[in-house]
Design a protein that fits this description.
The protein has helices spanning about 15-20, 20-25, 30-40, 55-110, 115-195. With about 200 residues, the chain is mainly alpha-helical. The longest helix has about 80 residues, at about 115-195.
Length: about 200
């Protein structure tokens, strides 16, 4: 017989038993409820839009920006580490070369192979070596300072990203609760519509 929700006669017999609310509740099937509503022409509850969606998108954008900033900070730190390592290697190499030269001249002096002119040149060489060592030490110190600054900036970028993720997570969890509530309300509404659709109409 025709659907009772359209004001027609009430379904009876096997049809009434098959489409009763108790059957819907027994099966617990969301699809069954939707089928009943479609059959009876019932209107589904309009889906509500999450009110903080704009804020959620803004915070996700900030997470993306903070992630990019951290990537740049990490790259800058790695570059500073490489530069400091090069400066340190140059200083050590120059220091070892100078020590080898000094040791060679000490042996020559002990063996009486150096002249007065050789000693004069040695003094000039020592002055040049000292100046170069000071320059390399200064360069290494500057590179170490840049590395420290880059490491500090990288740490701040990590903290900033963690903060932005925490802000975004707050809204994400709130949206999850909102969606869950909406789903429960929608299901309750559809069950109510199904019950109303199959409720016997009084003459």
């Amino acid at each position: 017989r025709r659907c009772p929700c359209r004001g027609n006669a009430v379904a009876t017999g096997p049809l009434r038993r098959a489409t009763s609310l108790s059957h819907v509740q027994y099966t617990g099937s969301y699809l069954r409820v939707r089928t009943l509503m479609a059959t009876c022409g019932a209107t589904a509850m309009r889906k509500a839009k999450y009110p903080l969606e704009t804020l959620r998108e803004v915070r996700l954008t900030k997470v993306d920006d903070a992630t990019a900033a951290l990537g740049q900070a990490v790259s800058a730190l790695q570059a500073a580490e490489r530069e400091r390592a090069r400066a340190e290697a140059q200083r050590i190499l120059q220091q070892r070369a100078a020590e080898e030269k000094r040791e060679s001249e000490r042996r020559a002096l002990h063996q009486g192979q150096l002249t007065v002119a050789d000693l004069a040149r040695k003094d000039a060489w020592e002055f040049g070596v000292g100046s170069e060592a000071a320059r390399l030490a200064e360069a290494e110190g500057q590179s170490k300072s840049k590395e420290d600054d880059a490491r500090t900036a990288e740490g701040l970028a990590r903290d900033e990203l963690a903060a932005k993720k925490a802000d975004a997570d707050v809204v994400a969890k709130d949206k999850a609760r909102f969606v869950d509530q909406q789903q429960k309300r929608t299901l309750a509404h559809e069950e109510e519509m199904a019950e109303e659709a199959w409720r016997p109409k009084r003459a």
